[in-house]
Amino acid sequence: MTLEQNQSTDDYYEENEMNYTYDYSHYEVVCIKEEVRQFAKVFLPAFFTIAFVIGLAGNSVVVAIYAFYKKQRTKTDVYILNLAVADLLLLFTLPFWAVNAVHGWILGKMMCKVTSALYTVNFVSGMQFLACISVDRYWAVTKAPTQSGMRKPCWIICCCVWMAAILLSIPHLVFYTVNQNSRCTLIFPHHLGTSLKASIQMLEICIGFVLPFLVMGVCYSVTARTLIKMPNIKKSRPLRVLLTVVVVFIVTQLPYNIVRFCQAIDTIYLLITNCDMSKRMDVAIQITESIALFHSCLNPVLYVFMGASFKNYIMKVAKKYGSWRRQRQNVEEIPFDSEGLTEPTSSFTI
Question: Residue 282 to residues 96, 104, 278, 286, 289: CA-CA distances in angstroms?
Fold first, then answer.
């Protein structure tokens, strides 16, 4: 979690004072970032509340349908189910970060470590499952049925994705702590802070964005070309879905990873020597990471509700619930003190 990493009364110059010499006549020694914290107190809780409510509703429906109603699941269905679980676990960390932005971290050092690690695990695994879905769609469209059936079991791939995300979260579990301003943040030892922090950031960018983006770009471009060449099929809807998935991924994830890349470069070369620029970087990371988080709210719409088969399951469940509700109301609405008939309830339609 990087939203809180630079919001303290920051001594980002003093932090490197032991190892470097600066001409302090050109800028302040201490950069006071009170306005950054005030912005976070307003922006982050409001945005996290919206994301939590929308994402919880959409992903809960996906998990409920795939776990309890859809018994025969394809590999894409399994990936979507894992993606929804990762998004839900990610969303459950947002209330903690909202409180952290307003009141500071009040749950202790261990919960700080666990929450930040859980955030990283589910953020990274979610991006990886998006890549898995693109690969499976590529195989389904471009390969013959005999070839598409000769793939590894999807549970092995899912385990590998989760394990990779867990390994990537270990530095967060080790180095996240509560600082002197009662903020849950990433603090490295001085003797390995610069190189280790930059390495972890670059690794997260590569595994959490660059690799999934390359896989999705290649798979979906080949899939689109294959669909265009197919005769006598309705191509417009699948192509629109593919284009929407790629555009949403780029719009939500690219700005955040560009800012993170700039942070990693600054960590190595110390390019930001101006307090105002540091403040703008802090605000930029808050806004872009929040936009990246909102992708977890859009996943159910992009990967599930656009599919005809899933909408059929939604209709079946809704009709089943509507029938059960009508039967219950018919029983409950029998008038014991009147001879008049109860009015029939309206049917539940979509």
Answer: 19, 17, 6, 6, 11
